[in-house]
Amino acid sequence: MKYSWIGSAASEASVLCIRSDLPYKTFDDLQKAKTTLMLGTTGPADVNGQFPILLKEFAGLNCKMISYPSSSDIMLAIERKELDGRGASYSSAKPFIQRGLVRPVVRCRVSEPGIEQLPVDETLTTDKRGKTLMAMLGPCYQVARPYVAPPQTPPEVLKILRDAFARLPDDPELKEDARKVMMDVNYTPADECLKSLTYLLNQPEDIVKEFGKYFRF
Fold first, then answer.
1. What is the secondary structure of 52-99 as a DSSP string?
2. What percent of the chain has pLDDT over 70?
């Protein structure tokens, strides 16, 4: 919170994707599944791996997390049918969804065009603490690609940086560069970033302790 926040260049909605050849069409199907789903993750600090962990703990998802060195290794394992799916950012999963390799079945509270109709993880549990923990991941998704300046940056300098950053998403050259590398640019102003972070960092001690059971950074 000591940094001088400029804003974020993109949000990153997290989705749970499963192989399209599996018989499960909805999250309700997954809750009723007798077979344990094998899901890929890059480790305990992987926010997209933490996403299904909460679904397992609070929404009845029958799954086991398997660690792989990288996201590309996870997708290759899904292609080989070694894994049944993974939690992933929608932007990185989109090419595999379009290919028909995986299908998204649930998303986080942050949405993007194409996944608006998916159920939100927080609505799939009646556990009040589980809902709060899922909501606490929200800032990770919303403030996905932030830019900050050093602490105590002079206000006049920070204003120049923020104003310039706010204009970037409409810049034709940036739009073209983003299109070439298949990246989305979604501007989030500094005050919204800080509002999300304040919510995350101002939780009561018992919630922070519970949060620490599931998340590493």
1. HHHHHHHH---EEEEE-SSHHHHHHHHHTTS--EEEEEHHHHHHHHHH
2. 99
Per-residue model confidence as pLDDT tens digits over 20-41: 999 999 999 998 888 999 999 9
> Number of helices and strands (H, E) in the chain?
10, 8
φ, ψ dihedrals at 162, nearest 5°: -65, -45
Domain 14-140, CATH number (from 3.30.310.170, 2.40.50.140, 3.40.50.2300, 3.40.190.10): 3.40.190.10
Q: What is the spatial distance between Cα 183 and Cα 139, in angstroms, rounded to a whole number?
A: 20
Question: Do residues 44 and 89 lie in contact, with contact meaning Cβ atoms separated by under 8 Å?
Answer: no
Query: Quick count: other Cβ atoms within 10 Å of Cβ 154?
Result: 10
In the chain, what are the domain boundaries? Answer: 4-9+141-214, 14-140
Q: Tell me which amino acid residue 79 is.
A: E
pLDDT value of position 139: 83
Beta bridge partners of 106: 16
Distance CA 18, CA 2 (A): 40
Among 53, 97, 62, 54, residue whose Cα is nearest residue 78? 97
Q: Cβ(17)–Cβ(99) under 8 Å? A: no
Residues of the chain with pLDDT under 50: none
CA distance 155 to 5: 11
Q: The tokens 């309700």 sit on which residue?
A: 28
The chain-wide mean pLDDT, for the chain, equals: 91
